[in-house]
Amino acid sequence: MMKKVIASPDAPKAIGPYSQAIKANGFVFVSGQLPINPASGMIEANDTGGQTDQALKNLKAILTEAGSSLNDVVKNTVFLSDITNFAAMNEVYKQYFTENFPARSTFAVKDLPMGALVEIESIAIVNV
Length: 128
Hints:
Blueprint (H helix, E strand, L loop, with lengths): L2 E4 L14 E4 L2 E7 L2 E2 L4 E2 L4 H19 L6 E8 L5 H11 L6 E6 L9 E8 L3
Parallel strand pairs: 6-7
Antiparallel strand pairs: 1-2, 2-3, 3-8, 4-5, 6-8
Helix pairs in contact: 1-2
């Protein structure tokens, strides 16, 4: 089994001792993506929709770097700072995933890093 660290310059650097993603055995495991603009290193959007959009752009950049795509995602986990933001997240999410939807879990959590409203992690297949 080969394990390869994936690092995209088009997504924010990890804010701790972890990789953006790991590619192994035909899958790519993407760490939770915060809504950080990679150019500024800051969370710029102040609403759930805008933050979901940025988190998914970050996810897409990492998947592309790994040789995968949003169409190859098999499972997403979405973390929300407040479950009442579920509908706002879903409105943006459905613009990125339009058919053959991946499996998904969504949880409300007490807090997210950097005061984020949303974080998204993913597992996708990748062409080996």
